[in-house]
Amino acid sequence: MAVTYNPQTKQFHLRAGKASYVMQLFRSGYLAHIYWGKAVRDVRGERRFSRLDRAFSPNLAPSDRTFSLDTLPQEYPAYGNTDFRSPAYQVQLENGSTVTDLRYKTHRIYKGKPRLNGLPATYVEHEQEAETLEIVLGDALIGLEVTLQYTAYEKWNVITRAARFENKGGERLKLLRALSMSVDFPTADYDWIHLPGAWGRERWIERRPLVTGVQAAESRRGASSHQQNPFIALVAKNADEHQGEVYGFSFVYSGNFLAQVEVDQFHTARVSMGINPFDFTWLLQPGESFQTPEVVMVYSDQGLNGMSQTYHELYRTRLARGAFRDRERPILINNWEATYFDFNEEKLVNIAKTAAKLGIELFVLDDGWFGERDDDRRSLGDWIVNRRKLPNGLDGLAKQVNELGLQFGLWVEPEMVSPNSELYRKHPDWCLHVPNRPRSEGRNQLVLDYSREDVCDYIIETISNVLASAPITYVKWDMNRHMTEIGSAALPPERQRETAHRYMLGLYRVMDEMTSRFPHILFESCSGGGGRFDPGMLYYMPQTWTSDNTDAVSRLKIQYGTSLVYPISAMGAHVSAVPNHQVGRVASLKTRGHVAMSGNFGYELDITKLTETEKQMIKQQVAFYKDVRRLVQFGTFYRLLSPFEGNEAAWMFVSADRSEALVAYFRVLAEANAPLSYLRLKGLDPNQDYEIEGLGVYGGDELMYAGVALPYRSGDFISMMWRLKAVQR
């Protein structure tokens, strides 16, 4: 069994894959954390920590000065009754106090995994894939119950956690803090990894030792954001990509979040994650409940690659949903960097004609097709075709594209409204705002108030009408600014600080409805590129535009960092023009192709202006990617050389049966009289021989243990891509 309870020791043991997670009840029902790591047969809780009389750690019972919540490793701690560390939750009573005391009431263990009401979460296809433990904690004085939800997957070293609050008392309760999980580690002898960044520079890897005090990654922007990602990891000092212990924490949510590690006076580390308590409250009337989003916790004893491969497989097969989950993704051409807002039907059709000749499969019409949208200062919200640009409408354009043998895709930004739009003039109260304050704009737009049911209903019907008007098979769903003046005209004063989370619940409802109505459409999420690349989005849309920065050299770090958590099938990657529009760099079409072929492949440039030689190279790239597409999008991914640690980057993709692999190598800057170097591969069968096109036959053991010599190449921004195939004996 994946989950067991021993009534004699009052111990819960969750077995997930090859990992164990153990908890135990102490004293009058306090739930303590005992162990998380490599699978063990049993753990004796009383041996895991010594009870000492610690100065300035108060005691719940004066008769026992060795028992304090300040030193007890806990599963869901509170603040105010002897624990001074950061709490997992905080509740304010009608009398203004915030002291609560949760004790064990009951539990239940069952097969499968329940859905979280209104929220994205990982799932099972058969109940035998996982077991779930629900532990009910209660505060008898106020009638508060908190159900801690744990699911242990059978196949993977994965445990998911969430919490549900229920007010079963007679007075109103106000949640001030409602995190999804907390884990107390017995030591702080770890490094901390997170994924900070900025627009055009998303998800760079930062690793540093834990220090005394609080270190946190968080967003207060109304989105998971470019600046931080809802993921952190604790990494053993000796751990690297391929060996050592790693503990990963990934939050399945797309809004404001907090991921925090607190190292206390005794050098223990408390990890907590959930909705950011900053500017958040939630009023719980008697009889009401509140569900927190899910945290996916992964243990690996095979380094960062081991952790990543677990996240990749889980998120690709048990988070992403729909018809495109397991389907190869089409090679596309997007007109944005080719035309921006300056296009007409003839120009678009000419791009599509050239794309068809090169073997591209999907044409995507980006921003500028609706209202009076000749620039980014107007018309968001007016989802009516601009007949001046498209006299035959979307349907006419799409049919012309289809006749060329291409599918047709469309860009939308349904969460925003331009002040200069018919929608805003008709409904000025439909955007986020607070009374008597100016409405800050970003990219000349405001954020629609998705906490309102009427706004969500309008968007569902309006965008549905657009998508039903033409043979559309792909949608790029964009969101190009963060929240300010976060308030809603539809909420009373005591619920205003619920707005940001209610927005996310509304957004998830809209996305669930849209993807259900149009199951034949491949939805790709976007937020100024990678500003909302998070697990919450992947539940509704199986891929995300990785970054607005399409420069090949910049993308080495962006895609490498993104791969720490997110599967390759989720990463949109395009070849764009040079000099690059974001950084001005000039990289070869070969290198741009190799970087983009390391994700969901496409182009974003005016291919009608390319030379015949360049068009021929694109035709070859398209043909090659079609041949290796399934391997890239669904193979096992290995990081080989980090662009964060040197002048090179390398990664590879290996088929499930290890009969085929694809290796990509990149060098940023040339070096005079450089030494010879060798690249060690991973994931191959050591007893199998492999042929590398153009290099010969090698043993799998030689490729992994001795490595393959890198051919000498001069110049900056070079790349090599090798395909390996097992030699039939």
Description of the molecule:
Residues 29-285 form the Glycosyl hydrolase family 36 N-terminal domain. Belongs to the glycosyl hydrolase 36 family. It is an enzyme of class 3 (hydrolase). Pfam families: Glyco_hydro_36C, Glyco_hydro_36N, Melibiase. Residues 648-724 form the Glycosyl hydrolase family 36 C-terminal domain. There is one protein chain. Helix 6 (453-467) runs parallel beside helix 7 and helix 9 (552-562) runs parallel beside helix 10. The chain is globular and about 85 Å long. It starts with a strand and ends with a strand. It contains twelve helices and 38 strands. The chain has 729 residues and is an alpha+beta fold. Strands 6, 7, 8, 9, 11, 12, 14, 15, 19 and 20 form a ten-stranded antiparallel β-sheet that branches. It has an eight-stranded parallel β-barrel with strand order 21-22-23-26-27-28-29-30, surrounded by five helices. The model has no long low-confidence stretch (mean pLDDT 95).
